[in-house]
Structure formats: structure tokens, C-alpha cells
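protien #1 (seq + structre)
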Amino acid sequence: MELELPKRLYAEGLKPQVKKINNCCRMELIRDLKKAMSAEYNDVKIDPVFKHIMAIADNKLGFSGKLVDSFLGKQLITSKMHEKWFVFARMPLQFSLQEYHAVTGLKVSRESSSDVVTWKNDGGFWSNLLRSGDKITLKSIRKVHLKEVHKWTRIDRMRLIYLCVIMGVVMGRDEKVNIPYMYIKLVMDLDKLQKFHWSLHSYDFLLSSIEKARKKLGKKDSYIFEGFSYALQIWIMEAIPDFGEICGRHVSCSFIGPRCGNWKGVANVSYEDIIELEDSLTKKGDLFSVISVTGNGDMFQHVDYTRKGEMEDERVDLLQDRIRQKFDWSST
């Protein structure tokens, strides 16, 4: 039997459009923290663990719900559990932990010393919250606690900033969801916070969010999208440079580091713009099926990005072989 390529989730041009994506990745919250606690914000910002993530807020890159939504409908159906494949202008595009790390720069490898077991009671706000078993959300932080932080210790204010970056951006959780105690315990110990595998942890959550959103496509005019949505958008802007030009511009032509820190702009793009660009790129245009820290288009797959228990799929193997051979996808 002749090996087939993966099928599209939707046939070309048939993906339903929505009025709105309720994006849970909240850059405005990060900017509010900067206004309320500028000294502590600057201290957290120089910490390499989230330095490039916070740069997205500082650079004021806008979010395009239409761009992200359009790509959710451009998925290819595969058996892979830990990566997604999309298609644009008939070109297959891989979104794996490799691409996610190239965009975010977050730590991938898991260390046993980063496991959260204990926390030290220092009598501050977060210690008292853990000890009492009280709940806290991003919404309550924004509406209540930001008005009271001047009464807190400096280290507790820094912990608040770390928590908001984690819940509001890296994990992109709904603001009404209780912040897990695990995250609070992590910010109580900055050494463990820095050793934690944020890339692996947040990437898996983003994949689950993509899958949840996929099941809602065509059923509602809007939906909630959790996860690090900006990472998905920036990957699209990197994989398809024409979208980078439409949605923003580079901060620096000589930028070195995770891609998320090198974009700014309003990200204003319509469904009509997306369709028009896809039609034009089938004739001529640059797209990158794979992205890594070594450069766009590289097929380098480091052992750090391999996942135990991943499903084999010969259709994906065929895609990768054709990508290596620089196959002409316009003929498919």
C-alpha cells in the first residue's frame, strides 16, 4: 500500500471563522506590574529565566486572534502526541518542542532538584497564604492585591511578579482560575524556580489548549484560548516571514537569543489578509517548515527535544523526508 501524507483538519478554504478568541495570555497585566512596582519589576526582568518573555510586554507586541485561529484550522491530522503539524500554502510546518524552545528560550531539561517538596515560612504574604490554604487568582491580584503591595516586603513583591509572568503569560491561564500552590512554592525558592522545566511544562499545556480549541472550531462564534498563545503567534511570524512583516517588525536586525524578544508591533491582520497571503505564497514565497535555535530551516533535532513514548507515524516521516529533499509542495 502506498504511503499517504497526513490529511488536513479542514479542506483548503473551508475552515470556519470566529468573531473572537478570548486570549488568556495577558501582557497588559505584566505592564500593570511594571507601573505598580517598577524597581522590583526591573530586578525580575534581568533574571534570565523569564527575561525574554517579559520583553514581549516591554516591546508591546500585539496579539492577533485571527492569525492564531486561522492556524488552528490548518492542522494536519497525525498520531503524534507531542508535536503539531500545520499546513500553509500547501507547505507542512512543524510545531514541536524544538520550535517552542527556539521562540521562548525557556528551560527544557528536567532536573530532580527542581521538584517542589517544601517551602520556608518567612511570615510574609505568600507564606501566610500557603499556611492558611487560601486561594488567589490573577483577577484578585489585579483588582485587590496590586493596591496593597506597598505594604508587602520587597521579596514578596518580586514573587508576585514571577507568579503573574508564570500564570498570566508562560501558562496563559484564565484569570479566574486559582493559582496552583506548586507555582507559589516555586517562587518561594528562586533556585528551584530557575531550574524548573518551564519550556516542557508550558509547551505541553499549550498543546492541550490547541486540542481543546480544535474541538470547538465551527461550533461557536468565540472561544477561550489558554496557554502561551504569543509563542504560537511568534512561531507563525518566524515560519512565515511575510506574516512577520504584516504583524510587526524586528526590534534589532542583529538580535541574538530567543525569537520572542525580537518582535514589536500591533499584529493587525484580517482573515482576508491571511487568505490573500496564502494564495500568493502558493506561487512564490519563503516558508520554513522547521525552526531551531541554530536557524530557520534547519532539521537539527537535539536529544533534548525527543519525548519518551512518542507515537510513530510513517506519514510524518514522509513529510520530514520530503522537507529534507526540498520537495515542491505546490504540486500537491
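ok now protien #2
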Amino acid sequence: KFIKREVFQGHELISFKGNIVEGRIEWDDRYDDRTPKFIIDGQEYSLEEFGRMMMSCEGWNFKLEIIEPTE
């Protein structure tokens, strides 16, 4: 599992467990444009939700690697 959920002061916080996150990029049909959604740990996350999770790493650098589904 790559995502952790915690409750802090009555609010659910969703963040990455570690420095690596694996999942699938899919089209989010809730929008008319080409907005992605992310499937991580079997759950769907919007682009906005994924961005909020990344904010727990604010100030850090990152490397994005896209791999084919067969790998």
C-alpha cells in the first residue's frame, strides 16, 4: 500500500506512506476535458486530491517515471 489515511482534529488527511507511489493514470469522466484521475491502492483519486497528497512533500524535488502496464 502506498497511501495512508489519518484523522487529525476531525479531518481526514490522506498522504503518501513513503517516497514511492505506484498506480494507474486514467481519464476522469467527471470532466469534459482531458483531466486525469489516479488509481492507487485500488482507490480513485482526482487530480486535485493527488495534488493535495503531494503537498505533504512541499519543498522536495521529485522524479516522475511513466512505465507501460506490462512492466
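Residues 3-57 form one domain.
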